[in-house]
Specification:
Strand content: over 45%
Order of helices and strands: EEEEEEEEEEEEEEEEEEEE
Number of strands: 20
Distance between the termini: 37 Å
Low-confidence stretches: none
Oligomer: single chain
Helix content: under 10%
Radius of gyration: 16 Å
């Protein structure tokens, strides 16, 4: 929720170079909850998720990409729950089709595709993970963990039983 970092104007997002803070463009119009780095094939970039509608002065519904100089949206972003739609967690996972960005939060669609609270961005389009994690529930945490059977994506949130494992190569997980 900050609007300054180290005395420098920075709307809700800034970077630290070891001695000073600098803003990332004009920042966001509301809360940033999650950050991660992902290479969509154009080089590594910073991805931000939150409860914002604007990033760097451009429309970006809950998720945006910082390429080092400008912000850009990821398709149509997240929606479905009005102003309450948001991204709360981001991680990168390779489901054997190549690394992709995974977003979790409180949303019904990602880029216009039905994706209940969890979705995959391959660098150009959004897709759902199975049937999602139930309408009205939120994902608050995402991580990748190797449990002995291979790496899988784990989500934690307000859905029952509060944690879920997703591995597309292991049916039923």
């Amino acid at each position: 929720l900050f609007t300054a970092a180290g005395g420098v104007s920075a709307n809700r997002i800034a970077k630290w170079n070891g001695s000073t803070w600098t803003p990332l463009g004009s920042g966001m119009d509301w809360i940033v909850y999650a950050l991660t780095v992902f290479d969509d094939g154009t080089g590594p970039a910073l991805y931000a998720g939150g409860n914002f509608t604007m990033a760097g002065g451009v429309s970006a519904a809950g998720i945006a990409k910082w390429n080092g100089s400008v912000w850009s949206p990821l398709g149509d972003g997240m929606s479905g729950y009005g102003l309450d739609s948001m991204v709360r967690a981001l991680t990168v996972f390779d489901d054997l089709t190549g690394p992709a960005l995974y977003a979790g939060g409180f949303f019904a669609t990602a880029g216009g595709v039905s994706a209940l609270s969890i979705a995959k961005w391959n660098g150009s389009t959004w897709s759902a993970l199975s049937t999602g994690l139930g309408g009205g529930n939120a994902v608050y945490a995402l991580t990748v963990f190797h449990d002995g059977t291979g790496p899988a994506l784990y989500a934690g949130g307000s859905f029952f039983p509060y944690i879920a494992k997703w591995n597309p190569v292991e049916p039923g997980t």
